[in-house]
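Give me structure tokens for this 280-residue protein.
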Amino acid sequence: MSTSPVTVEYEHLDGGAKVAVVSLNRPAKLNGLTMAMLRGLDDAAKTLRRDRDLRGVILAGEGASFCAGLDFGSVLKKPMDIVRAFAPNPLAGDGTNLFQRVCWEWRRLPVPVIAVVQGHCYGGGVQLALGADFRVTAADARWSVLEAKWGLIPDMSGARTLADHVGAEQARWLTMTGRELSGAEAVEAGLATEAVDSLDDANVRAREMLVELFGRSPDQLASTKALFNRAWRSPRATFRAERFEQAKLLLSENAARAREAALKKRPPNFVRRGTWAFRG
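Here you go.
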């Protein structure tokens, strides 16, 4: 078994149609995202975007969970890596930083992308899944915009993709509360496309959906994706707003208190809104 944090394998469906299976490969940690995994996802998306023979992509997580979100314990060991990853790429047409790009890049791929979700789908895992065009989830999977637990907001393109899929009102509710949903409830809310009984069923259904899509022109599929990406607010403006609001939260006293409470598994004791964590 590969030790790479992100793997890419190829299958051929429906008479030879080429499909890439991109898998998070840190099952012992519920596929919690590290900087190495973010870079691996970024590299995989860039490589696949150049492959004109590719017809589809499946996003998956090895083991019992799709992705439990950002692994803060790992990521915070190298703060400068976070600073560099948080800065937007001035050459990127949509103004993304690394955190945003690893989720949004799947929208920019000119082929259908389907996420197969099982177990935990939290925080950054939700945003990664929402970067896919469609999501097939096990009915007993657990979904949550978990950033609320840490006093933060979804800033990995989630502001755009949440509103796209569930509407602004539901997106605000899920982001403010961090409410946990089952896979079946995620479908009802609009987070997921279909719910099935098990991970095996989800894998089968994802491939069935791709085969159905392969009956259409690959250029029509690519144009459909491009059209709907541009149909609403500019991604550049959305992602700029994400970075601005998250930067404020990262410097706030209440976010620090939320993190401490989450780590110590106790209720947070918040202070007045607008209080900075570092005061002179």
